[in-house]
Amino acid sequence: MTASDAIRVAQTPASFPGGEGVLPTSAPPPLFQKFSDGHVVLNLHPGQRKAWDAPERFVAVIAGHQGGKTEFGAHWLAREIKRTAINAPNGADYYAVTATYDLFKLKMLPSLQAILTPDIGWNYHAGDQTMEHKGSKTRIILRSAASPGGLEAGTGRAAWLDECGQDAFTMEAWEAVQRRLAIHKGRVLFTTTPYNFGWLKTDVHDKAVAGIRNYVVVQFRSCDNPAYSMEEYERQRSLLPSWKFEMTCNGIFTLPAGTIYSDFRATLCPALREGPIDFERYNPSKHGHLIRDFTPPPSWPRLVGVDFGGSENLAILWLAEDTSRGIYYAYRETMGGGMSGQEHARAALSYTRPNPNTGIPQETVRVWTGGAKSEGDARLQWNMAGVPVILPFITDVEAGIDHVISLIRQNRLFVMESLTGLRQELATYARELDKAGHPTMKIDDKGRFHRLDALRGIASAIPMDGPGPAEEKSPLIDFAASPRSAAMDYLEDVEDGRVPNTGQPERPDKAWIEPRWREYMR
Prior knowledge:
The longest helix has 16 residues, at 69-84. α8 (341-349) crosses α9 (376-384). The model is unreliable at 1-6, 12-25, 467-488 and 497-522 (pLDDT under 50). This protein folds into two domains: 7-250, 3-Layer(aba) Sandwich (Rossmann fold); 290-477, Nucleotidyltransferase, domain 5 (2-Layer Sandwich). By secondary structure, it is of the alpha/beta class. The chain contains 13 helices and 20 strands. It has helices spanning 46-53, 69-84, 101-115, 171-181, 199-209, 230-239, 242-250, 341-349, 376-384, 397-409, 420-428, 450-459, 483-495; strands at 7-9, 32-34, 40-42, 58-63, 93-98, 122-125, 130-133, 139-144, 156-162, 187-192, 215-220, 290-291, 302-307, 314-322, 327-336, 365-370, 389-390, 413-416, 431-433, 439-443.
């Protein structure tokens, strides 16, 4: 069911015209050649050939722009269909997913239609965005990662993900693809230029580099494509900042300019068995800020940040504090809509209910923060439901970002591995670049980082001076026991300049609380 039943891969020459600084004297052969006798030849360059021959289940082609990724991906998927659909007499489903609808129209669809043509039984159905083989009922489901809901159906045998390194191709979309392929353990081809340090790097590239079974990464330069001249390659080198040249022309992950949380290292820490970080083995220069999931002890106080984010994007982030070390672990995230503010509040409050067997609260929340100054109504709804959400101690965005960066640099904030949404946002939160490629102060697409807004709010309640004697720590406020009175006592103390819930004058060196405070529920 490919373009022919007789596909042959041409012998890969040692070098193509145009490589190693030599300008081509003649046009290189096209990737795909179909002859009159029906046989087809693929003229793969060495990087493509390595990916073609890779037996691993997850094959990541991460290469420079115009390196021949998308055209190659169409042929790879066609081969997978031919290889696996023979065992599906009633047809089979396959997935071709790209980052945006524009990329689908301009790149992915033309590449597939060039080889899966009507004369061999393939037809494109624009209405449901599929390509179907009329003889076997085999389908290619064509989707954009910008609408991950479209991936929540079907059982696939293989998938091709194009430009999956872009910000628009989220971790949620990748997780949806994996669910579709789970039954048949379908293979996946990733074809992209690197754009950020998101899920593609941490969950695919880094696993391949670490030698984890079933993962392989193939990287090559733009000029490894024989159609891309070395002259143009060198011109790009002279024009682009070094980090951008490495990414766009060499396919090498390099931290982009403007990345805001560049100090966050998405590598795993050594951990105790089903527990927190093993600080006896922790090396800050080697290990990062990810930790394998564990259940924080009930005795650890919790801090909860809320970003109201509109009806469909309400984000809640939960931190647990290891009070013996002044370390904070992000261990739970929720994101979604479909409920009123009070319904969201009651759902969040359910985690603090007493254990029916012991009567001890499952989790004791020290403080709930959320929203901007203008979101008093949203905070009021939560308070009416018994959750005393207060305005964050730091409301200025830049000051809040600086506070989070300080916690990361001090190695006092860690993120559990399963918080894929927060991890993706940490990796892609960046400032817009000017025409010269230099960062500006404006945050790029700021409105979509709801989990980070929740983190910024709750981080403002974390002391910057680290752990100290018990009397020096911010007091544990049992909001769950008496939320309204505790919240009001807390705010009255702050407004009067006292250390909350003690009645004592506030000390000048108390760094754990902002002296500025705002009116309750405003």
